[in-house]
Design brief:
Elements: H1 12-17, H2 19-23, H3 52-62
Length: 65
Amino acid sequence: MSRREDAPAPDPALAARYAHLVARGQILLKAATAADRHRMPTYELPDGAPDPLEVLLAEREADDR
């Protein structure tokens, strides 16, 4: 499978993080652009729910990788 000429180049850091899964064929990485936003899910959060971005950033900070 080859990359389309107008598609952005994949991020090397992202590819390295998931290289073992890609090598086994368990996932296929593809680039997403602003034009793809309409296909991405959106979620309504109840009042008082933690901010998902803050949760993600806290998890990344705690990750030792």
